[in-house]
Every structure is written in C-alpha cells, then in structure tokens.
Amino acid sequence: MLLEDNVLRSDWVVACKIEDVKEEPLQVTVLGERVVFFRNENGIHSFKDLCIHRGAALSLGCVKDGNLVCPYHGWEYDSAGTCTKIPQLPEGRAIPLKAKAIKYTCKEAYGFVWINLNNNNPKFFSYPEYTDNNYRNVLWGPQEVNANPPRIVENFLDVSHLSFIHEGFLGVQEHPVIGDYDVQIEEDRIFSDEIAIFQPDPDGSGQSKDVFYTYEIIRPLTVLFTKRDPDTNNKMTILLTILPIEERKSIAYGIMSFNYETGTTDQEIIDFQDMIFSQDKPIVENQKPEDLPLDLQVELSLKCDRMSIAYRQYLKKLGVKLGTE
Length: 325
What we know:
By secondary structure, this protein is of the alpha+beta class. The protein has two domains: 6-116, Rieske [2Fe-2S] iron-sulphur domain (Rieske Iron-sulfur Protein, 3-layer Sandwich); 128-318, Naphthalene 1,2-dioxygenase Alpha Subunit, Chain A, domain 1 (Alpha-Beta Complex). Helices cover 15% and strands 34% of the residues. The chain has five helices and 18 strands. Strands 11, 12, 13, 14, 15, 16, 17 and 18 form an eight-stranded antiparallel beta sheet that branches. A six-stranded antiparallel beta sheet has the order 1-10-9-4-3-2, with no helix packed on it. The protein has a four-stranded antiparallel beta sheet with strand order 5-6-7-8, with no helix packed on it. The model has no long low-confidence stretch (mean pLDDT 94).
C-alpha cells in the first residue's frame, strides 16, 4: 500500500547504501512503492519496479550493456527509462513511444543512495563531517523497526532517557537531571544549545564526567547529534536517517563520525551502536499512540523535551502526514 505523504515524496529519502547496488538490480520499497536500483557506467539509477508491458518486476532482471532488461520478455530500458529494444518486434518496426519505465531522481551522497519520488530534485542537505579529512566516518544500518519514522526520530532527539534505557553506557540513574536548554532556529537550521550529560565512561578512560550534546533537525526523516568532550574537544557526530517501508515498518541508517582516534575497529563501533539501538527498539515499537501527536496538549512535556517539541512543530509546519496525528 502506498504511503500518501506528498511532503516526504518531495524530499530526499534514504534508500540503501551505495555498496548495496552491485551488478544485479536491487529492489527497495520506499513509502510503499517498489523501486528498482541498478548500476551502469554512468552511476546508479532508479525506476518504478514495473515493466510497462506486463507488470513484471524489473528488479528480477539484469543489466546488459548498461540497460536494465526485463526478466519476462527481455525489453531493455536505458538510464533515462526509454525502451531501446523489444525483441518481439520485427526488424525495422518502431518501438512505441509509451514504452518507457517510470524514472525517479536518485543521488549518491555520504555513502548512501537517496531518492526523490516526486522528481522535484530539492536542495540536498549538507553533512560536512563526511568530507572533512579530520573525521573518520562509519556507516551504520540497516536496522528494521516496526514503527513509523517520527517515533524513531523523536527517540533519537530525546535526551532524558539516556540514564534509564542506556544506563551504564550513556548515563546513570543517579544523575537523571537535565538542565534547561533552548532550541535555536536559524534559517533552515533547528538545533539545541549544548546540553550537559553525565556519563559513566564517555572516553574509555574509566572516569565519569559531563559531556555536551547538541541536537539538530536536518529534514523530517534526518537528524543528528554531536557529543563534545569539554576536556579534549573530541567530537562524535551521529546522523540518523529513516527509510519508510510501509505503515509501521521502517529502516534506520546512520553515519558515525569521529574527529579523534577511537581505538576501536569499524565493526566494533557498529556493534556498539547496534546494542544501543536494540535498547531503544522495544520502547519505540510499543509506544502509544503509534502516530506522533502533533497537538502538544495530547502528551505531557517538560522543559527537557524542548527538542522533541521543536520536532513536532516542524513536522506540523511542513505538513508531514505519515506517522503523525
């Protein structure tokens, strides 16, 4: 079932990692739409996963001489979606003008493939850490979650659960207090002040201390936070972005960026993030209502929830429908 949300269809939505698109076509469901991604010498391309002839899934086909070949009758489509060959036609017979695949705009950036289903090619967001040589970047995901994207995103922006859900790692129950902070809005940016968080061992030294978190809303399905160590000024940034599959089913991806030597391998970093995410997952999958209330009177909020409030106001302003009420 298609997820009718014109705001999200007009935005850039993560689809997969670039490395996932190999020699064979790849099927990904985006907002309930089956999409095929394939690679040729000109890069990665995306079509509606449907042959105009008899409705076969193009993702079951192959790539031949740069063209996507339908598995059912061998029709071939070039990068623009134009059918260039119909084997059943006699020699010299013109290919019907309607013989086209439905092409979607897609883009390779920050290790991922992003898609814009409405083909309006909006401005792409900036993540400067990914191209900064002072940072090491580790891709994370996919992580499937049985929840709609807004609940997953808001959990990521929630600073006050760290000492409970992630006790011993990102906080301790003996230090649950969150100091007041403000949310800043500057043109397209929505971000928090630095928030002091007590952590038992934030830098691997075995010493507990306060570190500082900053949260930022990038797009409806893309957010980030930065953790700064005040003693060393080491910074870790995590960008979270969500792929909506179908109602109450999403896939989370992320980028973890470090401007210091962690002393751990990429896989160890991924494993730790998987563990942290596994602590959040049952909470998010069982929240009621499943759709995020945009009426701020429906749930009780505190001052420490200002980032969550800002996110809800942002979704309401944009008119995001999926996963909201």
